[in-house]
Each structure stands twice: as C-alpha cells, then as structure tokens.
Q: What sequence folds into this?
C-alpha cells in the first residue's frame, strides 16, 4: 500500500467517510513508526556490533570512532568543533523527531491520546541517566529557563546573599539580578583564575565570599567562557556544611560528562541537552533535589501546580512540542548504547591532546585547565596579536573547521573556543593545530 499516495489523493478522501479517513491516518502513523523503528534499529545494531568487537578499545582513532561518526548528520565534510553552542543530532534522534512531527501533523488524535503515555516514560529514562528520581526532573526549554525557575521560585528576603562567579553565562546571572531588583537581595561575585590553579583555589575563593547572610551559591558547573569544569562535589560539601543551597548551570554537562546527581550532591542543576547530548533544540532539563522542592514556588502555573507531588508541579506548562521530548528520549538511548563513561573518556582524551599541543605554540595562551578533573570537551585559548575573529575565519575558510569566538577582554577570557565531541577525530584535531601553527607563523 502506498500510504502517502492515499493521504495525498483528493479522490481517495472524497470516497471515504470520516471514520474511515481517521483509520487511514492511524495506519499511516503506524507505518511511520514501523519505518522509524527499522531505521533506528539499524543504527543500534551497528553500535551493538562495534561494542562487541571493541569492548575496551580506547585507541586514538580507528574503526570504532570512525564508524560512530557515520551515525551523525554532517554536511559538506564539515568539521564541527562548536557543538558547545548547538550540537549535531545523531541519526536516530533526527529520525524520531521528523517521524513524530509527521504523526502529529497527520493524526492529531495521537497527540493527545498516545503521546502523553509515551511522554510520561521519558522522565524515567532521564532520571536513570543522571542517577536521580523521576520526581526530581523537570523538562524545560533550556538551561536559562531552569535557572530562572530556581531564582524566581525561592523565597529570599532583602539582604539575603547569593554568591556567583565572574564567569557566569547571562542565563545564569541575570535571573539573580532580576531577583535583586525585585526583592532586594545582594549578589556577591567571586573572581576565578583563567585558568585557576586547582580545585582548592576555586573552593577557597568561593568559601571566602560566604557570610552569615549567604543563602545560595549559584555558579557555572561547565564554564562556557573558559571550559572549566567547576569542582561541584567539593563546592557542595563546603556549602552544605553552612546550610547553603548550591545551584549549578551545567549547560554543557549532559552528554559531555557522566553526570550523577547523587554523587555531586547538588541541590539544583540546569542543562541543555541540545549541545552535547544531541537532543533537539528547545529541550532543557532541570534537576531539583526532592528535599528542596518545598522551598520553591512554581514560576508557571496551570492545573496541578498546587496538587502534584514532586517535580511535576514545576512542569505545568500547557501544551508542549512532544516530538522534541521524544527526540530527547532518543538522544538518551543513543548515548546509553555507546556508554556514558566511554563518551566522557573519549572527549577528555581529545581535549587533552589538543591542549598539550596548544601549549607548545609560542603565541597561544590557554584559558582552560590541563587537569582532566577540571576540564572536558571545551577548550578556550587566545593568540597574542591575532584577533579571535581572524582565527575563526581562517580555520573555516582554509580547513572547513567550525569553532567560535568567546569571552571578554576585561576579565582575560577573550579568545576562541573549541569543542571536541566523540565525532571529532585526532586527525581533525591535528588539522586544527596545523592551522593554528600557520597562524602563529604568519601572524594577524
């Protein structure tokens, strides 16, 4: 049966009654789901076979990672080293997104009958992925929304203090600035080194800013300016000894790091899975520790905000774009198939190789720590006498490599930023380094 032809045929529509037409649409949806399942099954079968053939293969390149790259969507041999802004989708995520939108377009009945049951299961998958409970996860639109939910929802009084760092993203800083304007709270900023010398320096710098009025420490876990991975576990231990809440902007964390909410012991963490996890843009995740939820007011209210238990009362957002949520679910499955620890190891191996070679180039100043505990897939650096825009444009024009400018001159973070995800090879890292070395020789 050519279902798509039947759906397009005007004569077919005229000859069938309303009930028959509905059944045809349901059949088209089922056929789409079947085709989707087959497309995605082929990808997962390939990953299963690779894992079986290479159970411990951490070689720099070779069959495993070269074949894994084929499961991502790329165009014109693009070397994508900026998924720190928006990352490419694995093919199964794209298939799920497109086919689910098609079902929604052709059979809206599924949108309110079938989809809600499937959507409820996404929270379970997400909770397992970050070692949390389903009633501790909220599906948002992005990290900024999650950070606003926390800042807006906390009852704070005039004079209460919130500690931030000088390297916060606007989406993590401005919710507190708004809170200060509305409620009279005080914001205390802590300067971080570029790069810092180590974990103890970071913890002690933040601790030195704590006073008897400090109620919240809100900071970037994955610092977008420098690539620093803040020692969140140690910061939480210090803060909780003083009964201070810790809120983390981990926009890049989900999909780059093997996140474990119980091990980190953080109170709230917001992240954007469309960067490193490969989920569709428009999906965010907010973790809220169960024990702090009664201290938060929902920011958006509809039915259930005052009756639901757990994080569900922070997700009364009305109608959602369900295909985005199912794309998030598929992205979780894709990374689980490879292995979260294996992904983190690969990302860190690539970035460490890049940083060690960058340090040898005379004009380069590295902004990112070498320590793999304090860094992962984001590497930031500057070149003396060469504008960041010049670096970005040169690599794009000569090598088809995409990176981005980043930072601010006033705090020493102005430069460029490179993302090294699992679809990047060591050969491509060497290609980037070749370009940087040539720029070092020819100058700005």
A:
């Amino acid at each position: 049966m050519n279902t798509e032809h039947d759906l397009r045929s005007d004569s077919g529509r005229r000859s069938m009654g309303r009930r028959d037409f509905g059944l045809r649409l349901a059949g088209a949806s089922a056929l789409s789901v079947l085709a989707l399942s087959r497309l995605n099954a082929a990808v997962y079968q390939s990953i299963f076979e690779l894992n079986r053939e290479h159970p411990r293969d951490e070689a720099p390149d070779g069959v495993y990672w070269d074949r894994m790259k084929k499961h991502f969507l790329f165009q014109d041999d693009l070397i994508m080293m900026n998924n720190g802004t928006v990352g490419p989708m694995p093919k199964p995520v794209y298939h799920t997104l497109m086919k689910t939108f098609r079902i929604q377009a052709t059979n809206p009945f599924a949108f309110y009958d079938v989809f809600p049951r499937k959507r409820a299961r996404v929270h379970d998958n997400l909770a397992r992925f970050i070692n949390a409970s389903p009633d501790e996860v909220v599906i948002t639109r992005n990290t900024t929304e999650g950070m606003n939910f926390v800042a807006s929802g906390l009852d704070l009084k005039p004079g209460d203090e919130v500690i931030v760092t000088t390297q916060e993203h606007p989406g993590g800083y401005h919710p507190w600035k708004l809170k200060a304007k509305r409620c009279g709270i005080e914001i205390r900023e802590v300067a971080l080194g570029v790069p810092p010398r180590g974990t103890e320096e970071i913890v002690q710098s933040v601790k030195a800013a704590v006073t008897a009025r400090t109620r919240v420490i809100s900071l970037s876990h994955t610092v977008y300016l420098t690539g620093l991975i803040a020692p969140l576990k140690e910061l939480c231990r210090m803060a909780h000894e003083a009964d201070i809440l810790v809120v983390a902007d981990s926009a890049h964390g989900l999909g780059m790091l093997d996140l474990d909410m119980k091990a980190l012991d953080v109170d709230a963490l917001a992240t954007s899975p469309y960067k490193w996890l490969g989920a569709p843009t428009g999906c965010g995740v907010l973790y809220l520790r169960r024990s702090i939820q009664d201290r938060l007011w929902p920011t958006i209210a509809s039915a259930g905000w005052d009756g639901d238990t757990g994080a569900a009362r922070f997700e009364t957002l009305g109608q959602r774009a369900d295909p985005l949520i199912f794309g998030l679910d598929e992205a979780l499955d894709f990374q689980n198939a490879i292995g979260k620890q294996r992904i983190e190891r690969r990302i860190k191996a690539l970035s460490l190789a890049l940083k060690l070679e960058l340090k040898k180039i005379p004009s380069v100043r590295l902004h990112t720590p070498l320590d793999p505990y304090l860094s992962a897939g984001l590497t930031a650096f500057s070149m003396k006498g060469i504008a960041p825009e010049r670096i970005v444009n040169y690599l794009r024009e000569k090598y088809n490599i995409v990176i981005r400018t980043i930072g601010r001159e006033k705090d020493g973070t102005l430069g460029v930023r490179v993302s090294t995800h699992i679809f990047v090879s060591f050969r491509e890292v060497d290609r980037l380094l070749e370009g940087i070395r040539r720029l070092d020789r020819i100058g700005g």
